[in-house]
Amino acid sequence: MPQSSTIARELDGVPTDVLLQFFADRVVVLVTQLGKVGSLIEASMPSTMPLLPAPPPDPTAPNELPLPLPPPSLQLTPLLGSAPTERIQTLHSLYASQIATLVWTLEEASVLEAERRPVVVGIALAKAAGPSQSTELSPHDRSIFKGVMGMVRELLGQK
Asked: pTM (2 decimals)?
């Protein structure tokens, strides 16, 4: 597995970069649409806690690989920066939880009895056009999320 890799794509009309960097004690994943690190959140979970299996594929979307479910014992710790609103904070937490789960799932599948390293996620997403008063994810939010998770999977070699 490479120590560092990057990927760039246009997601829903927004240039998006994802960087994956492996360190001995942590994994860093940066997701940016703004060319900067953004808020940093560390996701951690004891190695003794099991990861949940991915749900079965959705019959209505057979070409879409389901994401593994983030475990309830996952802990998120803000390290630097803060989201401007509670809604954005929730969105950042969703990204950090899912990205960490993808990293841990790959590490667990590739190494026997691997130490589960904390995952530090940097998130700098462009503001979506239009009102964002709703707590629901917009179609734009969903499209960006699915695209970013696909990019992370590609970097991790889970095509």
From this structure: 0.90
